[in-house]
Amino acid sequence: MVKTAAALAAAVALVATAAPAQAANGTVGERETVCAQDLYVRTAPDDGPWMGTLYRGQTFLVKGPKKGNYVYGFAYGHINAHGWVVDGWFC
Asked: What is the pTM of this model?
């Protein structure tokens, strides 16, 4: 019983101190991993026409420039094209 209580207390302390995963802005020149559930790739910044969707775990090479909340780059995977995505959704 004492071992169980000590193990439970240690597990709670570990969970309480673990930092939550947070998405980050992309770095120009880096192939970033998408942290969002889905991330729309557009032909132009500022809610331009949609051309495809990247999903969590897929990658995007940030080439720049950045315009407002959007960043230009190359979407790998099934899209395989240059486009714009909302910045701030990379691991």
From this structure: 0.74
What are all long-range contacts of 80-83, with beta carbons under 8 Å and residues at least 24 apart?
81/41, 81/51, 81/52, 83/41, 83/42, 83/43, 83/51, 83/52
Contact 79, 39 (CB under 8 A): no
Spatial distance between the Cα atoms of 46 and 68, rounded to a whole number of angstroms = 8
Nearest to 60 by CA among 44, 45, 39, 43: 39
Regions of the chain short of the pLDDT cut 50: 1-20
DSSP string, 26-59: --TT-EEEB-SSEEEEESSTTT--EEEEEETT-E
